[in-house]
From TrEMBL:
Molecular function per GO: metal ion binding
Protein name: Insulinase family protein
Organism annotation: Azotobacter chroococcum
Origin superkingdom: Bacteria
Residue ranges of the region described as Disordered: 472-495
Keyword flag Transmembrane: yes
Transmembrane region(s): 7-28
Any matching Pfam family: Peptidase_M16_C
Keywords in alphabetical order: Membrane, Transmembrane, Transmembrane helix
Compositionally skewed regions (Low complexity) per UniProt: 485-495
Domain called Peptidase M16 C-terminal: residue spans: 231-406
Length: 495
């Protein structure tokens, strides 16, 4: 039996090799393929040739011809024509995130979640079946600054027009049915109970309160039990009328459409939205007082979160800070924090840092988990590493490596129409230049060690962190000394 299986295995391997050799011979004898027309992607062997021609160089970033206009009602439109696929992606971005909640935390998220739960004559099931029957996809979501609604559909008018008609109903005429409202509120209330069992979530909520104080960014986007439970249909209708107006929207369009078709689509969507002005962005948050808050929680690990105010999305230091953070803690296993805290000491499975730029100054944050009895020493180590990085800046090798990685991965930011429509939404919402992506790449390529060091020192105060820990109070142990990864003792956190 063993010999038979062996012979059978060798036979299959031989068959596979013959097939591969045949395929290679076929590819070698194909005639040269002419270059694809402008705007079309090469396929088959031509694509293999183009990859070979890269010769180790990073792929070229896809240049975007962004067209920009406003509708009669005041919505800003950004459009990129892309004829490669017979479909389009549409994304509406509203200044309708939780920063607009006012005295009712969670109102923005609940309003957005209810958009596709019912329109006159159609319930949630009919809406879902309507999109599905047309081969279209509807999406929505709400965050701190913004709320979004998206549609992906075939560009064939027979599919496109009914999909757009249903999309306009969902965005312009939601009726917030009582049964759906009760169901979604119950789901949210159950989620609030679940997050009480998550020390990481508890630490995150406490950190935002400490960092932002009375600012709208302080409260959780999904609200809490006290705020969500009493929300009624009238409040949702009022928020929709105020925050989902055309003048408060950015319409991003990418796909198999002409300029005239895109203009007609944007005009029809804009006209279907409520009338009203754009909403003002929130005021700038006040810097918090540094300090440590501990949340007692029974576990073997402690969550550590450090934060301070970072930057707004339009800050001129954005590129330098993005690259500097990749070196400090945003770049995974090659980053300083990961190397020193995980690789050399085995104190955590992962440690990450990052800026979250928003309409006004968002957080710069560092987070990790470590063994409870090493938590104090680990916190001190992280603070020392940040202090050293701010004082010394990156090395020339770190900067070169970070640039190479970023430039090599940057084409992925516009690799698909869905990626592009997301970029257009951000450019429009944060009022960035239309050539923002190209400028960002040029800025990254030109950055020096001194420029990155200066930008990081300008925006990060090593002594200015708000710190929240969540875990048990236990006797602390001294940290193990740093070692090479192969010599590291087994002191990784226990799970």
């Amino acid at each position: 039996m063993t010999d038979e299986r062996t012979r059978l295995g060798y036979g299959l391997i031989g068959l596979i090799l013959l097939l591969l050799l045949g395929l290679l011979a076929w590819l070698a004898n194909l005639p040269p393929r002419p270059s694809a027309p402008a705007g079309e992607a090469p396929t088959g062997p031509a694509r293999l040739e183009s990859l070979a021609r890269l010769n180790g160089e990073p792929p070229v970033h896809r240049a975007l011809n962004i067209q920009d206009w406003r509708t009669a009602e005041g919505a800003r439109v950004l459009f990129v024509e892309a004829r490669q696929l017979p479909m389009f992606d549409l994304r509406l971005t509203f200044a309708a995130g939780s920063s607009q909640d006012g005295d009712t935390p969670g109102l923005a998220l609940l309003t957005n979640a209810m958009l596709n739960e019912g329109v006159p004559g159609k319930d949630a099931t009919a809406i879902a079946e309507g999109f599905e029957g047309l081969g279209a996809q509807f999406g929505n979501g709400a965050y701190r600054d913004m709320a979004v609604a998206s549609l992906r559909s075939l560009s064939d008018p027979a599919k496109r027009e009914p999909a757009l008609a249903l999309f306009r109903e969902v965005l312009g005429r939601p009726d917030f049915p009582a049964d759906a409202l009760a169901r979604i509120k119950n789901q949210m209330l159950a989620g609030f109970e679940m997050r009480k069992q998550s020390p990481g979530k508890l630490a995150s909520l406490a950190l935002n309160r400490q960092l932002f104080g009375s600012h709208p960014y302080a409260h959780p986007s999904d609200g809490d039990t006290e705020s969500i439970a009493p929300i009624g249909r009238e409040q949702l209708q009022a928020f929709h009328a105020r925050a989902y107006s055309a003048a408060n929207a950015v319409i991003a369009l990418v796909g198999d459409l002409s300029r005239s078709e895109a203009e007609a689509m944007a005009a029809a969507i804009s006209a279907a939205l409520p009338a009203g002005p754009a909403l003002a962005k929130p005021a700038a948050p006040a810097p918090p007082k540094p300090g440590l808050q501990h949340i007692e929680y029974p576990s073997q690990q402690t969550h550590l979160m450090l934060a301070q105010l970072g930057i707004a999305r339009d800050d001129p230091d954005y590129a330098a800070l993005f690259l500097g953070n990749q070196i400090l803690g945003g770049g995974g296993f090659g980053a300083r924090l990961m190397e020193e805290v995980r690789e050399k000491r085995g104190l955590t499975y992962g440690i990450y840092s990052g800026f979250t730029p928003m309409q006004v100054r968002g957080p710069f944050m560092i987070n990790l988990q470590t063994r409870a009895d090493y938590s104090q020493g680990t916190l001190e180590l992280v603070q020392q590493l940040v202090r050293a990085f701010i004082a010394e800046g990156p090395t020339a090798k770190e900067l070169k490596d970070a640039k190479r990685e970023l430039i090599g991965s940057f084409p992925l930011s516009t690799a698909s129409n869905a990626d592009i429509v997301g970029q257009l939404g951000a450019i429009g919402f944060y009022d960035l230049p239309l050539n923002h992506l190209e400028v960002f790449l040029q800025q990254v390529q030109a950055l020096t060690v001194e420029q990155v060091k200066t930008a990081m020192a300008r925006h990060i105060d090593p002594d200015g962190f708000v710190v929240v820990s969540a875990g048990p109070t236990v006797e602390q142990k001294p940290l193990p000394p740093p070692t090479a990864p192969a010599e590291r003792p087994a002191v990784t956190p226990e799970h």
